[in-house]
Design brief:
globular, 7 helices
């Protein structure tokens, strides 16, 4: 999901360099400029961070309960959340003149349909939204279908 924000920022910079990408695909992320007021996972305790990871269902429970592994991995995780939670959309950026495709899990607690739909305002090109059963890590159960969708999006160019 953080990759969607990164891809959008890279696309904006490539546009300014006169080297526009052909397509932007965003997964599991709300549109730029739809920041939430209470995004503070990165400020939480280790227990709160673990609870968030459990809620998102993207990490096997046996890994989350491995104390030695969590002592090793957990210190790096708040940095990812901080980047995702504090990134602000520069309002001077204009919509991209390229297609944007969004792919998300229907039960993803990290994004709402309205936040995903807001990607439409970041393109003057075609916009398409695709939803799969599952949460934030819907891709784990639908990788083949998602890859097929990405190939089809690329072939339409």
């Amino acid at each position: 999901s953080l990759g969607a924000t990164l891809a959008y920022e890279v696309a904006q910079r490539l546009m300014r360099l006169g080297r526009p990408p052909a397509l932007l695909i965003a997964s599991g992320r709300r549109a730029p400029g739809t920041a939430r007021v209470s995004q503070d996972v990165h400020l939480g305790t280790d227990d709160q961070l673990l609870a968030t990871l459990q809620r998102m269902s993207g990490t096997a429970p046996e890994l989350l309960s491995d104390e030695e592994l969590m002592r090793t991995v957990l210190p790096a995780v708040p940095g990812d959340y901080k980047a995702a939670e504090t990134c602000r959309h520069p309002h001077h950026w204009t919509p991209l003149p390229l297609p944007i495709t969004t792919i998300n899990g229907v039960q993803d607690p990290e994004v709402t349909p309205a936040e995903v739909e807001a990607w439409r305002h970041h393109t003057t090109g075609e916009y398409a939204a695709h939803w799969f059963p599952g949460g934030h890590f819907y891709l784990n159960d639908h990788a083949e279908a998602v890859m097929r969708l990405i190939r089809q999006a690329g072939m339409r160019l």
